[in-house]
Design a protein that fits this description.
It is a single chain. This protein is mainly beta. It has one domain (6-32, 51-109): Roll (10 Kd Chaperonin, Protein Cpn10, Chain O). The chain has one helix and eight strands. It has a six-stranded antiparallel beta sheet. The chain is globular.
Length: 116
């Protein structure tokens, strides 16, 4: 699949969407603000202290994006984002430079990096 948006295929909108330049369209994983501890305890958004980065799933990329592909997980600052609704679902538009990390199976061969 190319950079066309998977969201437009599954939503009610029939117009294809193409991300431009270095833009990345992502979908948040889980409910925003809430998270689970390693023991499975649900931590509400009101308990957050300080700045916390958020994971999301890449659903579309622009032609100038080099560091990620569709279905990669990315880590970004939730304060630096633009929200958009496509086909009744909420998505976030980011610039490639605003993404702090990428997690993907294809990165297993990389000699450096973290294992998540």
């Amino acid at each position: 699949m190319t950079a066309e948006n998977k969201a437009s295929e599954s939503g009610s909108s029939k117009l294809p969407i193409k991300m431009l330049n270095d833009r990345v369209l992502v979908e948040l994983e889980g409910s925003e603000g809430e998270r689970r501890s390693t023991g499975g305890i649900l931590i509400p958004a009101t308990a957050q202290v300080g700045k916390r980065l958020t994971w999301a799933l890449v659903v579309a990329i622009g032609p100038n994006v080099r560091s990620m592909q569709l279905d990669d997980r990315v880590l970004f600052n939730p304060e630096d984002r633009y929200e958009v609704e496509v086909g009744g679902k909420d998505y976030i538009i980011l610039r490639e430079r605003d993404i702090h990390a990428v997690a993907a199976k294809r990165l297993d061969d990389s000699p450096t990096g973290l294992y998540l």
